[in-house]
Amino acid sequence: MSSTYFDTGLSFYQHTLADSFHCLGRGLHSGMKVSMTVQPGDENSGYIFRRRDVLHGNAEVVARWFSVGETTLSTTIINKLGVRVSTIEHLLAALRGCGVDNAYITLDGPEVPILDGSSLPFVRQIRQVGLTKQTVERRALVVQKPVQVADGNASVSLKPSALPRVRVDIDFDDRAIGSQSKQVVVAGRLFEQKLAGARTFGFQDDVQALQKLGYARGGSLQNSVLVDEGKVLNEGGLRFDDEFVRHKCLDAVGDMALAGPHLLASYHGQRSGHRLNNLVLRSLMAEHGAAENLSMREAMQWWQDRTGSHQAFH
Is 29 a catalytic site residue? Predict the structure, then answer.
């Protein structure tokens, strides 16, 4: 039976896709054409990537915080044999934002297709196939005391919260962006409405240098917002006035999905990126008593005991 998670917010039970969906596109950084199929996952499997172009050895890469190997301009996960999958954050944001706990992702290249540069194409396909409620209870990683990491004027913190919240503050010299701030509760339809359509972005002056370093080789005005000296070069302009910070929020949702269980925390990123996102998860897991892995029911009870109310879960 298909679930209506999109309308009900947090669920006590795990969900997977009711059917598979397929995507064909190019990798943002590699420029390689890639075919990808996202399939229903078994209970407690989480998100597992499978490289069907890897013919020998272990071609599976588990999407968890401890698998993250590179964080330059995107999040890359790597298994013990060196098999890698990059630019996973937009797909993971869509899966987590839409309430998919378990999925198998099979692709024939090293990078998830960028499509239009946002999570919206994935969200639309998830909505089209629908979700199926599974029999195992959903897990929640409940942050119980604050954790923060910083690098210069950039920082990421996680604080206790009854609902998954994301806030990002950015500050760019280019007047097309400037200073922007956005906060969103990532539950029910809010991810789809507020964040899913926000596209990745870059600067015209950086394109050639990045391509020489092996990045942005698949970038175009069809999959990225391009900024040049205070102007947005894309025909049609922006999807949101603050599309840039919304995309940073989207990235944070995808990177926090690597915690495994649903992260019940208030995330705050200031000038943050993929590296600090991974470092804050590593710090959370390393610090004794910072978080507890509970069932969603137990998490609700924990917050009810703490606040005297369970209203946030309805």
Answer: no
Q: Which residue has the tokens 């999570």?
A: 119
Domain ranges of the chain: 2-138, 140-313
Lowest model confidence (mean pLDDT) among 120-134, 198-212, 268-282: 198-212
Long-range contacts of 53-59 (CB under 8 A, 24+ apart): 53/108, 53/109, 54/83, 57/81, 57/83, 58/83, 59/83
Q: Which CATH superfamily is domain 140-313 in?
A: lpxc deacetylase, domain 2 (3.30.1700.10)
Assign 81 to helix, strand or coil. Answer: coil
Rounded to 10 deg, the angle between the 89-97 and 120-129 helix axes is 40
Gap between the Cα atoms of 70 and 86, Å rounded: 8
2-138 CATH fold: Ribosomal Protein S5; domain 2 (3.30.230)
Whether 289 and 144 have beta carbons less than 8 Å apart is answered as: yes
DSSP 138: P
Amino acid letter for position 167: R
What does residue 72 show for φ and ψ, rounded to 5 degrees? -80, 110
Looking at 22, 56, 274, 310, which residue is catalytic? 274
Give which of 74, 49, 117 is closest to 275, Cα–Cα: 74
Pairing mode, if any, of strands 68-70 and 76-78? antiparallel
- SS3 of 92, please? helix
Largest CA distance in the chain: 57
Give 254-309 pLDDT, tens digit per residue: 999 999 999 999 999 999 999 999 999 999 999 999 999 999 999 988 888 887 75
